[in-house]
Amino acid sequence: MMFKRFWERLKTNYLRGSPLHRVGRTKTLVSAVVCLSFLSFIAFSYHFLNSSPVHRIANPPEPAITCRMNNLQKSMFTPKDHTSKERLHIGARVLVFVESQYSKAAKQITSSLQYARIDYKLENAGHNLPTLTHADKGRFAVIIFESLEAYVNMDNWNRQLLDKYCQDYKVGMIIFVHSADEYGIEKEKVPGLPLILRYNVAVKDYRLNAFTDIWRITKPGETVLDNIEEDDWVVFEYNHSTYEPLSYAKLAPPPYLNSRYIPDNSTVVCALLDRGTLDGIQRIFFGNDLSFWVHQMIFIDGISYLSHGKLSFPLERYILVDVDDIFVGITGTRMTADDVEALAKSQERLQKEVSNFHFNLGFSGWFYQHGTSLENAGDQKILEYRNKFWWFGHMWRHEQGHKFDQAKLETSMIKNYQFAKEHNIPVMHQYAVAPHHSGVYPVHEPLYQAWKNVWDIRVTSTEEYPRLYPSWKRRGFIHKGVMVLPRQTCGLFTKTLYIDTYPGGRKKLDDSIQGGELFKTFLYNPINIYMTHMGNYANDRLALYTFESVIKFVKCWTNLQLKQVTPLEMGIKYFEMYPEDKEPVWQDPCVYKRHMQIWSANKSCDRLPKFLVVGPQKTGTTALYKFLQIHPAILANYNSPDTFEEVQFFNGNNYHKGIDWYMEFFPVPGNATSDFLFEKSANYFDGELVPYRVHSLLPKAKIICILIDPAKRAYSWYQHMKARGDQIAGNYTFHEIITAPDSAPRKVRELRNRSLIPGIYVQHLQKWLEFFPSRQIFIIDGGRLKSNPVAVMHNVQRFLHIEPHYDYNDYLRFDPKKGFFCQVSSANKSECLGRGKGRHYPPMNETSVEFLEQFYRKNNVALSKLLSKHKYRIPDWLEKELSD
Ligand SMILES: *[C@@H]1O[C@H](CO)[C@@H](O)[C@H](O)[C@H]1NC(C)=O
Ligand SMILES: *[C@@H]1O[C@H](CO)[C@@H](O)[C@H](O)[C@H]1NC(C)=O
Ligand SMILES: *[C@@H]1O[C@H](CO)[C@@H](O)[C@H](O)[C@H]1NC(C)=O
Ligand SMILES: *[C@@H]1O[C@H](CO)[C@@H](O)[C@H](O)[C@H]1NC(C)=O
Ligand SMILES: *[C@@H]1O[C@H](CO)[C@@H](O)[C@H](O)[C@H]1NC(C)=O
Ligand SMILES: *[C@@H]1O[C@H](CO)[C@@H](O)[C@H](O)[C@H]1NC(C)=O
Ligand SMILES: *[C@@H]1O[C@H](CO)[C@@H](O)[C@H](O)[C@H]1NC(C)=O
Ligand SMILES: *[C@@H]1O[C@H](CO)[C@@H](O)[C@H](O)[C@H]1NC(C)=O
Ligand SMILES: [Zn+2]
């Protein structure tokens, strides 16, 4: 097995000293993301159009995986439970020290953690330590080092601090050890530990030490027989009882034999556990990186062990294999009666490995009996065996949902429903799959509605959310009561029908099965829904080969318990496990080509705003909104009847209505290039999730906010609530509200919060700046907007790069009666905002002024620092505030 490409060997041309005593590190090779799927060319095209010519193979490939150990031997090794009371002292996340976050090793670690959905913090090894204990999130459970150098070269003070932390809280370390790049150094002692590293070793016959407490998912007993044709392994030598080998291998001849080579069959140690009896710290050392698949299992089990079970993965794996397109397929490539027989036999075999296993067949009734006579007999055989399998609806004529309205979709679904009824097909599990993922995400609302109406669908699956790659970041969400689960690909494409034409060759598929991508989907995903197509159960039955092989392989090497439950139960389990996934995150469908292809042609991303006025409330946002509307190239949203004209999409329940609902608020622009759609919702500014959501849907949008003295804002907001008849505001003075203690009634505390919290500008602005670069955020000094709106509007236009440029002198005029600027009407009259705006009320009580000054002081100082850092002008009021 070749782990690394030849070119990577070339990097060893650098001649450098001992890795443990090197100062800087020059190896910052930016290599491709490690686990990047090889499936990057999945055909999107309709399978009718590009199937290869028919050529049947008499003998489908047989699964060739055999375990070294028999079942009895295997049953001796039961998975270890790592939970101990120590886990109560730590949090559920890890700290990763890297030398460069772009190095290959660092990327492997982070993508593994992402895949396992383990929360982590990345830290540069040369820098100061982060806070090791975190009030909200608990202490780090495991510390990971990209390289041993990062650990031993840490400055003394930090090293002592870190070691002490690990000793005090029983926190373990995982340390990756890499070979010296210079071939001269063969051995080296690790400073401070009775441990010797032997560099640049090639190994073979890799096997695990069965007698250690680490194995949970990993099942020892098998051996990786291939020569591991690399000589960049580090193996460990030691002379202390604190060490316990985790894996062994034999020395192998190096890939490039030289005359000095003397054959040597010694056994060496490739991964090592330090039990902590020497210095109180448990450590796991890896003599190579995570490219080697067995290391990924050891890594996961190691995290579980070192975290005392806090970061343990479940052992159950729920598996569902969907066979899409039953009946659908070009004549000559469809299933015959023999294929159906083979499917049933395979299912019986799989039932021994996966409890309750059933192939889940997706049917499109219109195609029934549309093949050759052999294939039509196959169709009949499937129906004869219908009760052996599970079934789900897949659209009568394999229609792509996004192309049709609700009535058409329902008609199609009803036909398929009736087909199922006529043929007694047992469709039971409130599960459906959309052809080509169409309409599921990006959401086509009529599809969800039609599913509900015709089939009462509660679960579906797609590989398109949030997008196809990287596959380990696929997620689920719930929309309109339908649980959308992530789907995995298994390396079989709609058009790959033969093993001898498998893209990249049979070895590619076998590597994926034997520790590669497909194996890893079993390893990392507690819930696995696989997509396959009928064509791969016909012909040389590649799908049967694939699943039987991978499941055998999983059984040989892991303690995973493979099970099948109904899709509905799977959905419930998924969202119990990952409640944070329930809420979808909408994205702009036009950013990804794949999403565009399954999005209705009737919809247009031109109906998404180019900029947002986000508030906060009571800073002059309504005036700004009116002024913007004067501009002929700026188009505002249509008013919402429920929310005082504002759309309020990103901050509340409206978000669940989806982007179709949102886009209905915008006109179709006459010219999408020159027209600027926008909306103003003043409570976006301080909404917890808003910056993240806005960024997902409108990554290029510009953001405008207005800042006034937060004390004035709080008072104005209170007066606004009072004027609107809010009972609490009516019953309590401003002072009582802002100083309400935590013992006050909940409604009073709520009002206090809503009056005070939006004014903590620095907190909210920071959040926006996490998602948007400062050049996309415009901050208006609210005082200037009031005193000189013409100048402000000039700057706003420049910020937006909007044409034509308008001179607002012609459109705004100071109204001495109102005390602020108003629009000039066509009849040359002042048109001021309604009664509610620019209200007059008594000045704030001195005590309140002092209280608020105190309350906001620290935040205002921080705000001014933040603004300076991002090169914003400091608003006049803030300047004044800070100089007082
Ligand atoms: C191991 O350490 C012990 C005690 O320090 C010593 O007596 C012994 O010689 C060492 N063995 C080897 C093989 O280095
Ligand atoms: C190494 O092992 C092979 C196969 O087991 C054996 O033929 C050979 O003699 C061994 N060599 C040494 C040096 O022990
Ligand atoms: C798109 O618009 C056309 C014309 O209004 C309509 O006939 C068709 O049903 C619409 N398609 C969808 C998917 O709504
Ligand atoms: C839209 O506006 C752009 C920029 O002003 C201009 O170049 C383009 O010709 C306009 N397109 C149409 C169809 O008017
Ligand atoms: C406000 O005060 C009035 C009069 O005392 C009382 O009837 C009402 O229940 C109070 N409202 C609230 C929400 O406390
Ligand atoms: C008010 O805000 C504080 C700080 O964010 C929060 O802890 C508290 O739960 C909030 N109270 C209410 C009633 O919303
Ligand atoms: C519009 O009104 C202003 C002030 O009322 C006046 O100075 C100006 O001449 C008027 N303009 C026109 C075109 O009537
Ligand atoms: C301001 O309000 C507080 C609390 O209601 C009150 O005790 C104080 O007398 C008021 N001060 C002035 C100057 O009105
Ligand atoms: Zn299909």
UniProtKB/TrEMBL annotation:
GO terms for biological process: heparan sulfate proteoglycan biosynthetic process; heparin proteoglycan biosynthetic process. Residues 316-519 form the Heparan sulphate-N-deacetylase deacetylase domain. Belongs to the sulfotransferase 1 family. NDST subfamily. It is a single-pass type II membrane protein. One of its GO terms (molecular function) is deacetylase activity. PANTHER family: BIFUNCTIONAL HEPARAN SULFATE N-DEACETYLASE_N-SULFOTRANSFERASE (PTHR10605:SF56), HEPARAN SULFATE SULFOTRANSFERASE (PTHR10605). Transmembrane segments: none annotated. Keywords: Disulfide bond, Glycoprotein, Golgi apparatus, Hydrolase, Membrane, Multifunctional enzyme, Signal-anchor, Transferase, Transmembrane, Transmembrane helix. Residues 609-859 form the Sulfotransferase domain. Coiled coil: none annotated. It is found in: Golgi apparatus membrane. Disulfide bonds join 822-832. This is [heparan sulfate]-glucosamine N-sulfotransferase. Residues 92-306 form the Heparan sulfate-N-deacetylase N-terminal domain. Its EC number is 2.8.2.8. Its main location: Golgi. It is an enzyme of class 2 (transferase). The active site is at residue 618. Pathway: Glycan metabolism; heparan sulfate biosynthesis; Glycan metabolism; heparin biosynthesis. The keyword Cytoplasm does not apply. It comes from the Eukaryota. 3'-phosphoadenylyl sulfate binds at residues 716, 837-841. GO terms for cellular component: Golgi membrane.
